[in-house]
Amino acid sequence: MKVSGILAGALAGAVLLAGCGTTYVLPEIDGASASRAQSMFAEAQQVARPAPKSRNAALQRYRRVVARVGPVGEALCLRETAGLSGFDCHVDIGIDTEMNERNAYFTYGDHARKRNPMIRVTLPMIHDVQNDHELAFILGHEYGHLIARHAQKKEQQAVAGALILGILSAAAAADNPYADPNMVSDNVELGYALGHQAFSQDYELESDTLGTLIARSAGYDPVIGACYFARGEAAHVQDQRLSFWGTHPPDEQRLATVIAVDRQIETAGGIGRKASH
Ligand SMILES: [Zn+2]
User: Fold this and answer.
1) Is the pTM of this model over 0.90?
2) Beta bridge partners of 24
3) How do residues 145-182 score in pLDDT, each as one tens digit?
4) Which of 44, 141, 162, 274 gives the lowest tally of CB atoms within 10 Å of its CB?
5) What distance in angstroms lies between residue 269's CA and the mean position of ligand 1's atoms?
6) Strands 115-122 and 92-96
7) What is the tens place of the pLDDT at every residue in 57-73?
8) How would DSSP label each residue in the chain?
9) Strand 92-96 with 242-243, pairing
């Protein structure tokens, strides 16, 4: 069997087995939202990155925004996960003082049991945000990873990918007496990695969708907040941490998603949930 065929089969199988993908409906990007995103993005990119705030002012902003966004994120989490027993919505929000780059991420203190959810924001990011709306949107986005259970889904996808690629390559090896003895275990690892990565971009957009709702509900303007994307940063992939920048650099699509969701909340009153989840 050709490797490309195995990969395609593994991915399709992982999707079916794990029942993953987004829980919430991602917005249709209408023409008005797309063109507004394009011009806001271009405009924000032309503005030079202003000087970072003083440490004191930055920390004051951080405390002020956490105090408003935290309760809203927790309330939404409790409402959205009410049917799941033992789901931990109590997030420990804190500052990562070690990481030297602009970033924020969601992770768990107890990965195995998915308990003690944590949001961490780095000092360079706290210094770099230009207004409260930006920090509110960033925190809302990280709550989105918790509420939409991205870490759980990625694990399920990884296991399904490993299983399917393992079965397919074991079958291929059984037919071929000259097969590389490491092929099956190599492909199990590959299947795990491919499964883990599946839907990554959709999950970032889903977190942006939930982040828009949270920032808005906490009294901030998520569209102003999402302009933070326009100042750009390289993508980050971190083991077990869901980075603010995701697996691809930010682009107009993320800003357009926020604009479309914001408009949808205004006109339709909320965001949509898929029937099957
Ligand atoms: Zn993210």
Assistant:
1) no
2) 273
3) 999 999 999 999 889 888 988 888 888 888 888 888 78
4) 274
5) 24
6) parallel
7) 999 999 999 999 999 99
8) --HHHHHHHHHHHHHHHHT-S-SBPPPP--HHHHHHHHHHHHHHHHSPPPPPPPHHHHHHHHHHHHHHHHHHHHHHHHHHTTTSTT-----EEEEESS--SS-EEEEEEETTTTEEEEEEEEHHHHHH--SHHHHHHHHHHHHHHHHTTHHHHHHHHHHHHHHHHHHHHHHHHHT-TT--TTHHHHHHHHHHHHHHHTTHHHHHHHHHHHHHHHHHHTT--HHHHHGGGGG------BTTBEETTTTS---HHHHHHHHHHHHHHHHHSS--B-TT-
9) unpaired
The token pair that represents 232 in the structure block:
């750009």
Instruction: For residue 265, report the distance from its CA to the centre of ligand 1, in Å.
Output: 21
The CA 8 to ligand 1 mean position distance, Å, reads 26
Place of tokens 């990007």: 29
Give the pair of three-digit tokens for residue 211: 């982040």
Taking the domains of the chain in order of start, what are their residue ranges?
3-268
